[in-house]
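Pasting as-is:
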Amino acid sequence: MALLRPKLDERRLPPAEQPNAMPNGRSVRYCGIVTLRQQPETANGTVFISLEDETGVVQVTCWKSLRDLQRRELLRSRLMAVSNTWQREGLVKNLIAARLEDLTPMLGRLTTESRGFK
């Protein structure tokens, strides 16, 4: 990710340390490598995504309505950009997704793997 940082900065996609320090309710954009996708049976269609960069991890919540609308980006992205609202309550921090963008082509031939649901 450090090698991509200049291009991510051009797109105004900050490293994880920046949103992780923001207060609740702030509008946030972030990009990271998808390391985990999970959709627990008890989550009513909500998908939880872990995105990681060179400075840390951002947890993303993707509601069912966005999951249905952007299924391709959700399931195929290895490098994902997410936009919307930062949610913070105590030590619990999440980015509530409103838009997903597949930036996988920026990785070139680099391979990545995520643990995901089927």
